[in-house]
Amino acid sequence: MKLIAATALGAYYSPPAKAAPARLRLIVLDVGGTIIQDHGDVPEALEAAFSKRGITVKPDEIAKWRGASKREVVRHFASERSNATGAKLDAICDAIYKDFTAQAIDAYRNVPPIAGAEDAFQRLRREGFLLASSTGFGREICASIFQRLKWEQYFAAMITSDDVAQGRPSPYMIFHALEAARVSNVAEVMAVGDTPLDLQAGTNAGVRGVVGVLSGVGKKPQLEREPHTDILESVAGLPALIASKYSA
Questions:
Q1: Is the dihedral of CA 65, 66, 69, 75 positive or negative?
Q2: Taking 80 as the threshold, does the pLDDT of residue 204 lie above it?
Q3: Which member of 12, 26, 77, 123 has the greatest number of CB atoms within 10 A?
Q4: Which pTM does this prediction carry?
Q5: Quick one: 124 and 152 in the same domain?
């Protein structure tokens, strides 16, 4: 009887329809090397700022931190290579970071965007996508870049390392971008960047798209070793990628 009842019930039972995938809404873009060209100015500025305080940091050591919060980079090497502690260490870190920031702002006064970046912003905005930036730069540096290029008009949020307790590979800048753009579902988000740390942050955030671009410091073999959904030559290819793969 039980078997007959179950069979009879099966005749009337219809499993729930599979939910449609969430629509992609928010694209979170790294800045240096992703939407603006990277000419190696940041490592040079950091190296010079450390050197002024008698701290030697080699370029290959700084390279391992590409994409990270620059405040965290300063703190790491100053803590490791100076004898300072407490308030004295804080003062050294503040001085190094202030010097780095001034050099970086000056260096980026004439650095051009990645070719096709602004066209991609315009197309994505026309198609209804929200844009946000996330960067290991502090707000002062990022704001100087966006103001010069008049990019504020395209972005719902500009998130920097100043906004979080921990920079990449922690996912907090991406989460702040969701909050600022009023997006609540990570399945509606794509993160784009040119470094392994960018991809790690996107993976740690659990977003739908984790896209590496080859326009900055990250080489294809490096980026391919990280969890990712796509790798592009540059952000210029984003609209076509989204149209072909993420339009659902």
A1: positive
A2: yes
A3: 26
A4: 0.89
A5: yes
